[in-house]
Each structure stands twice: as C-alpha cells, then as structure tokens.
Amino acid sequence: MKPAPFEWHAPDSVEAALALKAAHGDDARFLAGGQSLVPAMNFRIAQPAVLVDLNRAPGLGTIAQDAEGALRIGAMARNARIERDATARGSHPILAEALHEVAHPQIRNRGTLGGNLAHADPASEMPAVMLALGARFLLRSLRGAREVPAEEFFLGPLATALGPDEMLAEIRLPPLPPRTGTAFLEVARRRGDYAMMGVAAVVTLDADGRCTHARIACCSAGPTPMAAPLAAAALEGSRLEEADIAGAAALVRQEVDPMGSVHASPAYQRHLAGVVAARALRLAKARAA
Amino acid sequence: MSARVAVTVSVNGTTHRREVEPRLLLSDFLRHELGLTGTHVGCEHGVCGACTIRLDGAPVRSCLMFAVQADGHAIATVEGLAPAPGRLSVLQEAFRDAHALQCGYCTPGILMTVSAFLEETPDPTEEEVRHALSGNLCRCTGYQHIVDAVLLAARRLREG
Ligand SMILES: Cc1cc2nc3c(=O)[nH]c(=O)nc-3n(C[C@H](O)[C@H](O)[C@H](O)COP(=O)(O)OP(=O)(O)OC[C@H]3O[C@@H](n4cnc5c(N)ncnc54)[C@H](O)[C@@H]3O)c2cc1C
Ligand code: FES
Ligand code: FES
Q1: What's residue B3's pLDDT?
Q2: Is any Cβ of chain A less than 8 angstroms from the Cβ of B63?
Q3: Which of A90, A210, B30, B50 has a Cα-to-Cα distance from B7 of 20 to 30 A?
Q4: Which of B51, B78, B110, B138 to mutate to test the pocket of ligand 2 (most atoms within 8 A of CB)?
Q5: Residues B27/B39, Cβ–Cβ less than 8 Å
Q6: What is the per-residue pLDDT for A35?
Q7: What is the pLDDT of residues A93-116, one digit of tens each?
Q8: Is ipTM over 0.85?
Q9: Domains in chain B: ranges and CATH
C-alpha cells in the first residue's frame, strides 16, 4: 500500500529538528532509517502529519570512544556501519554479534541504532543488548538534555521514556572491564527473522576465575527487553561451573514473561530462555578467560 | 495533497530531475516517473527484497525510502548492470548458466544485493552467500541454484 500524505521536513541541523518536533509534538515523527516507520506508513498503521527527517542533520552519526573509554554512538549511525566499525568491534564486540541477527544486510544499510531503540520493539535484539551493557541514552530537546539508563527507557511494547519533543541523540556504553566476556545468541525460524528468544550475556571474572559481575537480558521475552537480575546475582562469586550456569538458566526461565506468537507458545519461549541463556553464559565465560 | 518537492537523482549515471509528492516511494518513482520497471515491487514493507536497489553503492529497499530522500544521491538499478546492449555482466551470465531464475520476479533485487556483496566479499563461503541472500525471497527456485550462481560468478570474477 501507499502512505497517507504528510508534510516532510529535512532540517540541516539537530537544533532545527528539535524545533520542528517541539512545534508539532505527537503529530510529528522523526524519520531515521525508515525501516520500521515506512512499513507502518505503507500499511497506514502510522499516519504522521509531519515527518522530521534526520538524514540531513549532521553530527548524529559519529561512533567514538570518549576520554573515560565509553563508546558513544550517535543515534543516526547505521547498523551496518556499527557492525563494521573497528572501534565498536574492539570495545564492544557484542554489538556486531547481535547486529548480525537484526534483519537483513539491506535493512541494516539504512536502519539506525537510534531508530531501532526508539522503536522499542520487545522482539528487537539491541534493546536487550543495551540492558546487558548498562547503556545510557542521551535524550535531547529544546528544553535541554538528559541521560536515561536503558532500564528506565523501555516502558512497554513500542513505548519509551521519550517525551513528545525529545530526540534520542546518543547511546553511551561504559567500557567493559578486563576479563569480561560477552555473547549474544538467539533462536529464530530463519536468518534475519525476529527471534523467538534471544539472550545477551556479560560476565566479568577476577584473576582466579570467579565471576565478579554478570548481566543477562533477553529479547522476545516480555513487553520490554527483559533483564534477569536474579540469575545474574546468583552467578556472582561463582566460577561459572555447569551447575552454576544451570541454576542461573532456571532463574532466567522464571524472570522472563514471554507473550507467545504464531511461531512459539509462551511455554516454548520460556524453555528456550533457559537453553539460550546457558549457551550464552558458557560462551561469555570462555571469552572472558 | 502535500506540496511537491524537487528531486535530482543520478540513476545508472544519468541525472533526472522531477517534482514529486513527499509520500512517493522511491520504488514508485523509479518505476512510474522514470519508467525503470526492472525494479520490482512485491510487498512494500521491506520483507521480500524484490525492490532492492543500490543507494550510493549500498543495497537498500527502495520501497522503504521516499523519493525525496534520494535527492543528491546516486542510485543503481538492474537496468545498469549489463555492460552494453545485448551483453550480460559476469553476474547475470552466471545466473543464466546456473539456472538461478525461473519466473524472474525476484531476480533484479537479488542481482543488486549480490553485486554489492561480491565487491565486499570476492571469495565468499557458501554460508556467507546464504546470509547475503537472506533478505531476498524467491518463490520458485528453492535458492540452491541462486547460491550456485553466486559462487560461480565469484569464481569467474576472481579468475578475471
Ligand atoms: C524485513 C525487516 C526485518 C526486520 N527484522 C528485524 C529484526 O530481526 N530485529 C530488529 O531489531 N529489527 C528488525 N527490523 C527493524 C529494523 O531493525 C529497523 O531498522 C529499526 O527497528 C528501526 O530503525 P530505523 O532507523 O529504520 O528507524 P525508523 O523506522 O526511521 O524509526 C522508528 C521509530 O523510531 C522513531 N525514531 C527514530 N529515530 C529517532 C530518534 N533519534 N529519536 C527519537 N525517535 C526516533 C521514529 O519516529 C519511529 O517511530 C526489521 C525491519 C524489516 C523491514
Ligand atoms: S517490495 Fe520492497 S521489500 Fe518487498
Ligand atoms: S525466480 Fe520466481 S521468485 Fe525467484
């Protein structure tokens, strides 16, 4: 189908984009890669009166490490670019590993990390990765800027903490401590499909191989990306032996709240959560050593 | 109706200028404004890949972009692949030789995807080829012959 008519603006600065959004509020949508918004407009599920196209606003696509070693990714950085970026691959290899599962190469050539996160699809991989990495998001509006931790950003299916005048401007990922291993794994019916279950795992070991810190988060596991803090806490202090991982996987199964789909019942998704979490934890442990 | 906007795009090396409604999809612009019907339209929601074109070299869905967004950019479509009238590119020839198409509906999108893939990955494994093809649906071939054709084209391109 074809989209309904709209007014199109392609401002050449972030400030101009924020001014347009402030003026039109909920009647306006930012257009990033268009890989979720345009399908919705073609179906006429979305009929925004105004589109504020961010593709010509400079300064939103940088990928760089800051003085504290945190990785800063501009909201308009395309997923395909992040996947290939040497700095991102070096500091946070889980980004490329998970992005490889986000849709298809052609979609990643247009789709942006900011658009993917702002869309807040609970089946989407990157929101879960953001929880596992302890990401913080920089939200900007004409009123100013604020930093929101990932766990306070995702409020429900397609719902975020973004106000009607706010833009997600930058994603900030703290550096991974030494002896940290990360892994993202998912089960999907076909390559590029949304996952039936996906798990991001991050573990940090001390010099004796004891886990000092763990984070686990799942996609397609509830109304938002779902962290599994009890499972992660249970791993801390352990050596991530098979019994420890099995115990954590059992907790992950309890912590998720899958909604089911035509492809997988909630019970099957819950089962998958345990299996995929165990595999991801084993892989993260091997990579941490 | 919203106001028309001027667009200037280069398509297969030729510059075109038109005034279009912002809601016109790039796929419809190519087909209806420029008469380049080699770019096919299957689903208009990004799933099938039939509309894949190259935007500044990168394969993208033309059904998920507005024509106005292509202003100032360079587009390549399937019409630009053949080196001369009556001749096929190495990739196209490999598709013919390996029987990689039946109805041909998916073929333009697949060729545009694969032409970019082979530039980045001149010596791909079969697994890499299958991943590269994951965003293009074919209802006829069962994919095996397409995979064969891509590997054949890669070999011929490497051997020169
Ligand atoms: C065939 C297909 C398969 C896909 N499979 C997957 C998959 O497996 N996993 C997955 O995660 N995704 C998948 N996607 C979605 C894809 O990853 C999108 O690129 C992504 O969800 C949206 O990013 P975008 O840059 O295209 O955003 P857009 O579509 O441009 O925008 C999405 C939403 O976010 C808002 N927005 C965009 N940028 C900002 C910003 N900076 N600040 C505030 N609001 C903003 C927009 O207004 C809109 O509401 C798929 C898409 C397609 C077409
Ligand atoms: S028509 Fe564009 S992906 Fe199907
Ligand atoms: S050859 Fe018919 S759809 Fe691919």
Answers
A1: 87
A2: yes
A3: B50
A4: B51
A5: yes
A6: 98
A7: 999 999 999 999 999 999 999 999
A8: yes
A9: 5-80 (3.10.20.30), 90-159 (1.10.150.120)
- A25 burial class (0-12, 13-18, 19+ CB within 10 angstroms)? exposed
Confidence at residue A1, expressed as pLDDT on a 0 to 100 scale: 81
Is residue A154 within 8 A of residue A173, CB to CB? The reply is: no
Q: Does B113 touch chain A (CB under 8 A)?
A: yes
pLDDT at A74: 98
Residue of B25, B28, B47, B105 to test ligand 2 pocket, by largest number of atoms within 8 Å of CB: B47
Which CATH number is A203's domain given? 3.30.390.50
Name the amino acid, one letter, at B34: L
Q: How many domains does chain A have?
A: 3
Quick check: is A2 in a domain? no
Distance of CA A244 from the midpoint of ligand 3 (Å) = 50
Do A157 and A227 lie in a common domain?
A: no
Q: Which long-range contacts (CB under 8 A, 24 or more apart) does A186-193 make?
A: A186/A101, A186/A125, A186/A219, A186/A276, A187/A272, A187/A276, A188/A101, A189/A263, A190/B134, A191/A101, A191/B130, A191/B131, A191/B134, A192/A101, A192/A103, A192/A104, A192/A107, A192/B134, A192/B135
Q: Is A43 on the interface with B (CB under 8 A)?
A: yes
Verify that A72 and A38 share a domain, yes or no: no
Residue type, A256: V
Residue B1 has pLDDT above 70, yes or no: no
Residues A49 and A72 in one domain: no
**If you take atom 3 of ligand 2, which residue's CA is the nearest one?**
B46
Give the residue-averaged pLDDT of B101-109. Answer: 98
Among A138, A173, A208, give the residue marking a domain's end. Answer: A173
Q: Report yes or no: B126 at the A interface, CB cutoff 8 Å.
A: no
Cβ of A8 within 8 Å of Cβ of B22? The answer is: yes
Domain that holds residue A223: 180-288
Q: For chain A, which ranges sit under pLDDT 70?
A: none
B119 contacts in chain A (CB < 8 Å): none
How confident is the prediction for chain B on average, in pLDDT?
97
Q: Are residues A89 and A162 in the same domain?
A: yes
Using alpha carbons, select from A104, A109, A51, A105 the residue that is nearest to residue B21. A51
The pLDDT value recorded for residue A191 is: 81
Q: Are residues A49 and A73 in the same domain?
A: no
**Rounded distance from Cα A111 to ligand 1 centre (Å):** 6
pLDDT in tens, A23-51: 999 999 999 999 999 999 999 999 999 99
Q: Is residue A111 part of a domain?
A: yes
> Looking at the structure, do residues A202 and A115 belong to the same domain, yes or no?
no
